[in-house]
Structures are given as structure tokens and as C-alpha cells.
């Protein structure tokens, strides 16, 4: 009589492994209950003068602290509005840090909280983070979290400078935020 050949996996074990792999693959596919919502807001940025909303707070000793100098750190407290005009309805503030993180000054690490203090999202926040290539026309950062009505938010935001006035150091940045819920 021939000796039984032992195999490292039995048929039931292979079935369990197969079912687990199928389940994992299915879990990675966006489900029909996921829906995307897009919001458009505008940041009103002022980098100089008594009403500046962006300020350099740290940098490498002996170097100018500006938006093109590696190691420069800025704090931000920009009004967030519904439209591109600085006088349009304010819905909150974008507060956080900008860090020039590449030696050539081309990239800025962005960490921003959009704090809604009026409109339908009063008291809620969106948390944005990512690398911003300063000279690109359209930049993208991640929406990594949120609070209130945006709890567990995930998605991305595209940033596009739609207006810049060098004499007043004012710029308007359109934030198109796409969330999956």
C-alpha cells in the first residue's frame, strides 16, 4: 500500500484562503454608497502690511525668510470666502503652517485647518496636508480628516491662484475640495 502524501494545505484551508482574498479585494473597491461632493471656496491671502494674514515665524539663521528660501516657516490665518472677491461672504478661516521644504525653494509643505465659523458648516473643520509645488498652475493636497459635519472626511483639494496683486501682496486662491463620504 502506498504511503499517504501529506500536503501543507488542506482543501478546507485553501477555500478559507480563497474566500479571504476575495473578501479583501471586494473591500478595496469603492462601494456604491460612497459619494463624492465638491465644494469651492476662496482663500484671501495678504503677505505684507499691517493686515497680513501670512507671517514668517522661523527660518535658517543668516538667510532671508521668504517663500523661496529652504527652511522658512510661515503661519497662516486667511479668510475663506464663498467667492473670489475679498468682500464676498466669509465662511471661515484657513489656519496652519507653510514650510518651504525643498532646498531649491520650489516645494512648500502645507498643513491647514479650514475652520468654518458661519454658513451651514459652522463649528466644523477640514484638515488639509501635502506638498505644494509653488510654481504649478494647479496644485493638489490631501484632505486627511475633519470634525463636526466633516468627521472622517477624506479626499483632495486643488489649489489655483486666480488673482495676485504684487503692489498690495494680495492673492486669491481657489480651493476646490472633493470629499468622498
TrEMBL record:
State the name under which the record lists this protein.
Answer: Dirigent protein
Question: Which family, according to UniProt?
Answer: Belongs to the plant dirigent protein family.
PANTHER family according to UniProt? NUCLEOPORIN-RELATED
Against Gene3D superfamilies, the record matches this protein to:
Allene oxide cyclase-like (2.40.480.10)
Q: Which UniProt keywords apply?
A: Apoplast, Secreted, Signal
> From which organism does this entry originate?
Vigna mungo (Black gram)
For this protein, the record's InterPro entries field holds: Allene_oxi_cyc_Dirigent, Dirigent
Q: Which cell locations does it reside in?
A: Secreted, Extracellular space, Apoplast
Q: Name the domain of life this protein comes from.
A: Eukaryota
Is-annotated flag, keyword Signal?
A: yes
Q: How does it assemble?
A: Homodimer.
Signal peptide start-end: 1-27
Q: What is its main location?
A: secreted
Q: Name one GO cellular component term.
A: apoplast
The root-end lineage is: Eukaryota, Viridiplantae, Streptophyta, Embryophyta, Tracheophyta
- Name the job this protein performs: Dirigent proteins impart stereoselectivity on the phenoxy radical-coupling reaction, yielding optically active lignans from two molecules of coniferyl alcohol in the biosynthesis of lignans, flavonolignans, and alkaloids and thus plays a central role in plant secondary metabolism.
Q: Name one GO biological process term.
A: phenylpropanoid biosynthetic process
